[in-house]
Write a structure and sequence with these properties.
The chain is mainly β. The protein contains five helices and 63 strands. The strands form 16 sheets. Strands 57-63-62-59-60 form a five-stranded mixed β-sheet, with no helix packed on it. Strands 1-55-54-53 form a four-stranded antiparallel β-sheet. A hairpin with a 7-residue loop joins β19 and β20. It is elongated.
C-alpha cells in the first residue's frame, strides 16, 4: 500500500496547507490524485467516487470569449503510445507527436498535433490518426509532417477500440458502434446501453472496463445490433484482445500492491473462461503482438514486462525492466528490436533485442506538468515538475517551440518555479540544493552551473537585477545572484505556513500564504514582516503600490488597501462567473488596468478602479487547470499543468471602457524614489491639501500643508524629506476634497 499511503499523506498536506476556503483543498486533493493515473482512467475514477466527471464524460465546444488562444506548447505527461512500423504516435499532455524511429538512435519528430483537450487514447488507422477526449478527432496523416484535421465525433470519450473498419466506444451510459471505412466521414451503425469504457475489440467481441469492477463483453458480430452478453469479475487496469483470447491485468482483492494477469477464453463472450494466469506482473496497459504480451508497468517496483502467452494456459513472465518514472502505456512489434513505453515524463525507448534481458535505452520528448512559467526576451522558462526546466522559443507566440531542457531522470527531480534572465536561469529544485543556477547561454544544451542551500524548494521566485527573491514553505529568502554560478543567501525571515505565490513591488514583497505576509525588503540582508493580510490567499498582485488583488482560493477575488502595510484592510470583492470553482494566481496586464485570474478558468477583471472591479471575460482551459500566469505584453502565458503552456491575447472587448469614463489619478509623485526632494503634482485646481506621511509601521512622520503654486508647471507641492530615514513611506489624506494615497521610497542616494 505504499502508493496509497503516499497519496493519502499528500492529500492531507494539501488540505491542511491550501484549504483556506471550503472546497479549495478538496479540489487540489482531487487534482493530485488524478495526476497519478493515465488520462483514460480519470473519468471513471471520478464517477466511481460520485464526483463531478462532466469535463471527462461530456463533449464541450471550445468557449469563445474576450481571450484568444494564440499558440500552445502542449507537451505534458506521456499517456499513450502506439505505432506502425517505424512510425510511433505518442500522446503527451494536450498533443500527439508523430515520430520516425527508422534510426532509433536519432528519432525524428515529424509533427506535433495540438488539441483542445488531453488525449486519452490514440490509434492509427490506414492514413488516419484517431484520438479521443473531448470528442474523437480524426486527422489525415497521409503526410505525417502536415497532419490535417478532418472530423470529430462529438462525445466525451475515455477510451475506444478499433477492429478492421469498425470503431467502438462508450459515452454517458451508451455503447456506440461506428463504421470508419471512410474514416473522414464516420457513420453510426448501432448502439446499446452500457456504462463501460471500451478498451479492446476482436471480430466479434468488444471488451469494456465497467464502473462496477467487472469486464463487460459486448457482442459485435453484427455491429449494427451490439448487445452486452457477459461479464467477468475483475478490477481491471490494462487489457488487450485478439482472436478468441483476452489478456487482462488487475488488482487481486482490490489491493494495488498485488497485480496479476489473466488469460481469458472469450470465444463464447456470454461465458468467458480463465485459461491461465501470471502473478506479480502487470500495469496500466497491455499490448499483444505475436506470441508476446507487453505490459506497461505501474509504479515503484512494477516495471515494463514481457510475457510469453504462446501457451494460453501457462502465461509466464520472461523479463522486467524499470523506466525513469510511472509507466502508463506500452507498444511494441515483437519482430523488431524495440519497445516503447509512455513513461509519465516522456517516451522510454526499450532495447528488446534480447527478450530475456531488455534494456532501458533513453527517454525522448521529456515533459511533465507545467507548474510555473517566466518569460524574458523571447524565451519562456517552464518549471515542468518531474521533467525539470524546459526552455521555449516564444519569439513567435503562435508557434512556441522547445529549445532544450535539463532534468535528472531516475533521481526524483521536482521543479515548482523558474525564472530566467540573459544567460542564466534559476529553478526551485528537488533534491537539494533546492535552488539551482542553470547556464542557458546555449538554450539547446542548458547546463547545471551552481546551487544554493535554501530552506525548502522554492514555490515562487522573482528576479530583480542581481537579487532573487524566493518564497517557500515557512521561509522568505533573498539570494544574491550577481555571480550566478555562486548564488549566495543574503537574507531570510520566517513565515507561518506554506506559500503559493510571490509579488514584488519596489521594496515590499507580498507572499500568498495563511496569513499572507507583507515583507520589507529595502535591506535585502534583513527582510522583515511589517504586516499581514489576515486571510489565506493563493495569488496576489499589487496595483499602483496601494491595492492588493488577492485570490482567497475559491470563487472570488478580494481587494485590500495596503497603502499602510502594517494595516491592510478589505475594500472590495468580486464573485467570478462559472459557478463553484477554485482560483489561484493573479497577474496584472495593460498598465495595471486588467487583472488576469487563473484557476479552472482564466478570468479578466477590469481593475482600473480597484474599488469597483468587474469581470469582462473568461477563457476555459480544456483540462480545467491553470495554476500560474506570466504576462509579457501583449501576451498572457498560462502554465496549464498537464496541458503544457497556453499563450493568450486579449480581444478588444476585454479592454474597452464605457464612453466618457474618467480615470485620472488625483495626484502624481515625481520621483517616487528619491534621496531628498519630492514634487507632488495635483490633477485639478483647488487649494485644500492635507497630506500626511506614514512609515511602514503606520507612524506619522510628516504633515504636508498646501504649498506655493507654480502656474507654469500646474498645481505643484514641493517637499523636502531631509532628516527622514531611508525607507518606504505612504502619503495619505485629502487632496481637492477627495481621499488619496501614494507611496514614496526614500533612499540614501539616488
Amino acid at each position: 500500500m505504499r502508493l496509497l499511503a503516499a497519496v493519502l499523506l499528500g492529500l492531507v498536506l494539501a488540505s491542511v496547507m491550501l484549504a483556506r476556503e471550503p472546497g479549495f483543498g478538496e479540489y487540489r486533493a482531487e487534482r493530485e490524485s488524478l495526476a497519478r493515473m493515465p488520462a483514460r482512467f480519470r473519468g471513471e475514477w471520478l464517477q466511481k467516487r460520485g464526483l463531478d466527471a462532466a469535463r471527462y464524460t461530456e463533449y464541450r465546444r471550445p468557449e469563445t470569449t474576450g481571450l484568444r488562444l494564440v499558440g500552445k506548447y502542449g507537451r505534458g505527461p506521456s499517456n499513450e503510445v502506439t505505432g506502425r512500423g517505424n512510425l510511433v504516435a505518442l500522446t503527451l499532455g494536450s498533443e500527439v507527436a508523430l515520430l520516425d524511429f527508422a534510426n532509433p538512435d536519432s528519432p525524428v519528430v515529424l509533427s506535433e498535433i495540438q488539441f483542445n483537450f488531453i488525449p486519452r487514447q490514440t490509434a492509427l488507422h490506414d492514413s488516419f490518426l484517431l484520438t479521443c477526449g473531448n470528442g474523437i478527432e480524426i486527422w489525415d496523416i497521409a503526410d505525417t509532417t502536415k497532419p490535417v484535421y478532418r472530423n470529430v465525433i462529438p462525445y466525451g470519450v475515455g477510451d475506444f477500440a478499433i477492429y478492421d473498419t469498425f470503431l467502438y466506444f462508450g459515452s454517458w451510459g451508451t455503447f456506440y458502434s461506428y463504421s470508419i471505412a471512410d474514416a473522414a466521414n464516420p457513420r453510426l451503425l448501432g448502439t446499446c446501453q452500457d456504462s463501460g469504457y471500451v478498451t479492446a475489440a476482436t471480430a466479434t467481441v468488444a471488451v469494456a472496463r465497467e464502473l462496477n469492477d467487472v469486464l463487460g463483453f459486448i457482442d459485435v458480430s453484427n455491429p449494427a445490433v451490439p448487445r452486452r452478453v457477459g461479464t467477468y469479475s475483475m478490477l481491471a487496469l490494462g487489457l488487450d484482445a485478439r482472436g478468441t483470447i483476452c489478456v487482462a491485468n488487475g488488482y487481486r482483492n482490490g489491493d494495488p500492491d498485488e497485480l496479476w494477469v489473466d488469460v481469458l477464453d472469450i470465444s463464447n463472450p456470454a461465458n468467458p473462461q480463465r485459461l491461465g494466469e501470471a502473478d506479480s506482473v502487470g500495469g496500466y496497459d497491455i499490448h499483444l503482438s505475436g506470441p508476446l504480451a507487453f505490459a506497461s508497468g505501474y509504479y515503484y517496483g512494477w516495471g515494463f514486462a514481457i510475457l510469453d502467452i504462446s501457451d494460453s494456459t501457462r502465461p509466464h513472465v520472461i523479463s522486467q525492466v524499470m523506466t525513469p518514472s510511472q509507466r502508463f502505456a506500452a507498444w511494441a512489434d515483437w519482430t523488431s528490436n524495440w519497445a516503447y513505453v509512455a513513461d509519465m515524463v516522456g517516451l522510454a525507448v526499450m532495447d528488446i533485442s534480447n527478450l530475456n534481458s531488455p534494456r532501458y535505452d533513453t527517454t525522448v520528448m521529456s515533459a511533465d506538468e507545467a507548474q510555473d512559467v517566466w518569460v524574458d526576451q523571447g524565451r519562456a522558462y517552464v518549471a515542468d515538475g518531474m521533467a525539470g526546466l524546459r526552455i521555449l522559443d516564444v519569439s513567435n507566440p503562435a508557434l512556441p517551440a522547445e529549445l532544450g531542457g535539463i532534468d535528472t531522470l531516475f533521481y526524483n527531480t521536482m521543479t515548482w518555479s523558474a525564472v530566467g534572465q540573459d544567460s542564466f536561469a534559476f529553478t526551485g529544485w528537488m533534491p537539494s540544493p533546492y535552488l539551482r543556477a542553470i547556464d542557458v547561454s546555449d538554450p539547446t544544451r542548458p547546463r547545471m552551473a551552481g546551487g544554493c542551500s535554501v530552506f525548502d524548494p522554492p514555490k515562487d521566485m522573482v528576479l530583480r537585477d542581481s537579487l532573487l527573491y524566493v518564497a517557500m514553505a515557512y521561509r522568505f529568502q533573498v539570494v544574491n545572484v550577481a555571480r550566478p554560478r555562486e548564488p549566495k543567501l543574503v537574507g531570510s525571515c520566517v513565515l507561518q505556513n506554506d506559500v503559493v505565490d510571490l509579488w514584488l513591488d519596489d521594496s515590499l514583497a507580498y507572499v500568498s500564504s495563511y496569513p499572507s505576509p507583507i515583507i520589507n525588503v529595502a535591506n535585502p540582508a534583513s527582510p522583515s514582516i511589517v504586516g499581514n493580510i489576515s486571510s489565506g490567499t493563493s495569488g496576489i498582485a499589487v496595483i499602483r503600490d496601494t491595492y492588493a488583488v488577492v485570490t482567497p482560493g475559491f470563487d472570488s477575488i478580494v481587494v485590500y488597501n495596503v497603502s499602510i502595510p502594517s494595516m491592510p484592510y478589505r475594500v472590495a470583492s468580486l464573485v467570478l462567473t462559472g459557478g463553484h470553482q477554485y482560483v489561484n494566481d493573479v497577474e496584472l496586464m495593460d498598465g495595471d488596468t486588467l487583472a488576469a485570474v487563473s484557476g479552472d478558468h482564466v478570468h479578466l477583471v477590469n481593475v482600473r478602479d480597484p474599488l469597483t472591479p468587474r469581470e469582462v471575460c473568461r477563457w476555459s482551459p480544456p483540462n480545467g487547470d491553470a495554476p500560474r500566469l506570466s504576462y509579457s505584453a501583449p501576451y498572457l502565458y498560462v502554465a496549464c499543468w498537464d496541458m503544457g503552456v497556453c499563450i493568450l491575447e486579449t480581444a478588444e472587448m476585454a479592454i474597452s471602457e464605457p464612453a466618457g469614463a474618467k480615470h485620472l489619478p488625483l495626484l502624481a509623485i515625481l520621483p517616487s524614489v528619491t534621496s531628498r526632494y519630492l514634487r507632488i503634482f495635483l490633477s485639478e485646481g483647488g487649494s485644500e491639501v492635507d497630506l500626511r506621511l506614514f512609515d511602514v509601521t503606520g507612524r506619522e512622520v510628516m504633515r504636508i500643508s498646501t504649498g506655493p503654486r507654480q502656474p507654469s508647471a500646474g498645481p505643484v507641492l514641493s517637499v523636502d524629506l531631509a532628516g527622514i530615514p531611508a525607507g518606504v513611506y505612504v502619503l495619505r489624506g485629502t487632496a481637492l476634497g477627495k481621499a488619496t494615497t501614494a507611496k514614496v521610497v526614500k533612499t540614501l542616494r539616488r
